[in-house]
Design brief:
The chain has 96 residues and is mainly alpha-helical. Helix 1 packs across helix 3 and helix 2 crosses helix 3.
Amino acid sequence: MNKARQKHSPKFKAQVALEAIREQDTLADIARRHKVNANLVHKWKREALERMAEVFEAGRPNTSDSGGEKETELLRKIGQLTLENDFLARGLARVR
């Protein structure tokens, strides 16, 4: 019977890839220690090296700032819709 596929967290993948990048042990040893396939370790290492430059890109918008701006905009919209809803509910109550 086949085992269900494991889903590894990005943090786990980064940890394993960093160990592979350091090259203190072989990929097979790292894979055995973390109980994953050596091909996965190689894939994660290659992907980490390819995407390393993205971390240091200049002028890249900070995702934490844009998330705060978006949250503020959404809260503002919720407040506006709540006021409109209350206004219309009072108007409807007068008509009845």
